[in-house]
Amino acid sequence: MSPRRTSCLLAVLGLFVTLLAAPARAAEDLPFRDPALSLSRRVDDLLGRLTLTEKISLLHQYQPAIPRLGIGLFKTGTEALHGVAWSTNIDNGGAVVTADGTVFPQAVGLASTWDPALIKQVGTAVGTEARGFNARNPRVWGLNLWAPVVNLLRDPRWGRNEEGYSEDPTLTGAMSVAYGSGIQGDDPDHLRAAPTLKHYLANNNEVRRDTSNSSLRPRVEQEYDQAAFKPAIAADAATGVMASYNLVNGRPATVNPDLNDVARSWTRRDLMNVTDAHAPNNLVNSQAYYPTLTEGDAAALKAGIDSYTTDDTNAAPTVNAITAALSQGLVTVADIDRAVRHLLSIRFRLGEFDPGGGRYGSITPDVINSPAHRALNRRTAAAATVLLKNSGRALPLSPSTRKVAVIGPLSDTLYTDWYSGALPYQVTPLAGIRERLGTGATVTGTEGADRIALKNVATGRYVTAGAGASGAVLTEGGTTAGDTAKFDAFDWGQGVLTLRSAANGKFVGYNWSSFVNDQSQPNGWFVQQQFKLEPQSDGTYLFRYAGYETAYDWFGPNKYLAPNADGTLVLTTADQAAKFTKEVVTDGTAAAVAAAKSADAAVVVVGSMPFINGREDHDRTDMNLAEGQEALVKAVTKANPKTVVILENSYPTTINWLQANVPAILWTTHAGAETGHALADVLFGDTNPAGRLPQTWYRSAADLPDILNYDIIKSNATYLYSRATPLYPFGHGLSYTTFAYAGLKLNAPSVRPDGTVTATVKVTNTGRAAGDEVVQLYTHQRTSRTKQPVKQLRAFQRVHLTPGQTKTVTLTFKAADLALWDVTRNRWSVEKSPHDVMVGSSSTAIHQRTTLTVQGETIPPRDLSRPTQATTFDDHSTAELADLTKTTGDTVATTPGTWLAYNSTLLPSPTTFTATTSTQTPATRVELRQDSPTGKLLATLTPPPTPDKYTYTTTSAPITRTTSTHNIYLVFTGPMRIKDFSLTR
Question: What sequence ranges are listed for the domain CBM6 (predicted)?
């Protein structure tokens, strides 16, 4: 190329670069980039410069770049429940992006620390690493973090139990404030990262999770479910909420008007509310709530959704739907502007439009998995460990212990969950104990799993895997059981096994066409590494594939394995399945018993596999420890009475035999790379365990109501209302030392509704070891117009005490915290009543108590002469709350035999019973009765049928004479919706 041509080309390129750069340089001088201006002025300036098309484009999760203003892409939604998750990912160009961050204990484990100050440090580390990941690749890791989950752990069978904090709103609120404020940082004007609370509202089941209805009577909604979300929003420790998949009182949460009307009322800050993944499409598909995506997206925008998480990176369906909604008058430009304002407000606070990215813009990837974060992880995992039982001072293990057998399926592995990052390294329990005891000790390890070989009875050939790192397709191989024909079988309960190839240490999984031993652990959305060996009457087994996708019946009856013509194992029906013999090459229990007999102490590590024993989209149907694991514990305990069990799982487990027979039991969640170090610290007394259970451990699933029953008041659920004797109560946890309580005092014997209660109690370490005590304060209201909790946590404090040391612990709460939701007037009310104030080490271990007189009000009798919302009942049988209209309001849906009770009702000789109802079933009656569902019949209504459930009619009937104050019951003979009713003269 000649110099002249080169010069011309350079000139053209220079002009081209200048033209491209000019808008960006000009944008640098625009007012919205001036950090000296107020946030509102900056948002107004940028909003005014965006075209309508650009505004609409920002409503999708992947907010596109706007080059003319120098604005880059912004992605909402980085999972960060206990560390930045999904740290191995694919960027938009298809390249693999890997960065291994710090994985802290699962969220339920974070809450078991009962230490908000520590959890704030964890949140700070997570927010800092989120910045580091974002600096590495902002297309993969955005700064809007989808954490924490604050859904209450109402039912321990919930598949996502590991993601939540607690069954109690006070503890959950404290943890969410701590974690969220740590993520955000302490600068009121700038965000390190932007936490989003999941999942609004009452999302505590996975079965039919997008179509099931969480029926929330007003008291449960106000006092329980909303109470978990309010603290972090009110403390400005969260920047928005994610709407859940389920229906709330018959209306999809994606279009729940609470998103605007309630959540935003708790703060003066802008909130950025998002949908859950693909939830907008559910409105049209599984929920069939709206006929078109245009109508569904419009309703979500009106309800308070700002960002649509749907269709992965494809924004076109959302953009087209909102554009169509605007043209059809379903939304206005003001609706769009309002949502975009919320989005931009968060982006400004993140420093995106500040020079250098603002206060936190200089954070680099060097912070990821830093030594300081590793140390914090170890400390947190130890602080979260709960000592469930310690008989005869079995723990800590004696310094003279030199021979330890570490046994069990979780003894030499660490598992991650769906919302974990990849572990940058692993210190397993076996490794941690070996390191702690050093070279002079003998530490033996065995997983206690049978090594088996499967031989096809018909062909005489063994199931064979690959020996290389990538494994191979399972086929029928030779007639002898070589290494490639051997598999370690791990029992996860209810017959479910995972099979790890002895040839390469990889698990066998299904890849939609064949079975391959190529997985480092069970994983993926469908978890295709699950099998069952079903015994037959002739002593053989059918080899069944039990991956989670079979729950959807995608394969029909094709769930069993048989060889193809080429020997490859494929799926077929039970009648065509091959029959196999199971040869036990190595008896795992026998090996464990032998190891235990020769040891000074046996440590058995059992528990769950987070992708198998309940997880997102799959609730547990059984709370027991896996049958094979319990049998292993029994055998080891018999072989060595100095047995310690470590239960490593994500939720309460029914371990009645262990509690009765094993000397010592520790519980931990899946706690990250430092699990082994933390457990060794606790086992040998370097750390005195002080974790406390954040939820009740039940003796049996029979102690629980149906998982879809959200009415904790009626069903006597959680420690708040349950009167069953638990295996371990809420707040339970032991220590290597002992504590004494004395001198509980209140700042005053009574309090007004606007007052504050300050309780002081002296706590003394009466043992020989330094340790932490978690001092817990509960209250119980003795008298009320309605049912009250058995007790309720109001305050707590984790305090460290050396041997012999006494500290005066101060616990405070507001009298307003004692308020109940008065359904008769639809407002909070602090009632006049004496309250028991109880301080102790768990919800059942109460060591000091006193009485507090609350100078509240006496709620007057109900006045039913005015229209009374049917939803404001005091008690009910089989009532379900439903949607009054598609946009707002609740109603009560009934079935035959449903009754509603309205207590303490003043009846000044009413003569007419009037009700506003909807029914499509002729001759359905509503009976007005006195004092019980079968009490004196006062009136009967037979409303005429209406065209649909959203059309109501008002009918009246005469009342048999009644006076005085009574409890009034409405009894229904069939399906009906009732909006309101009145008793008038």
Answer: 866-984
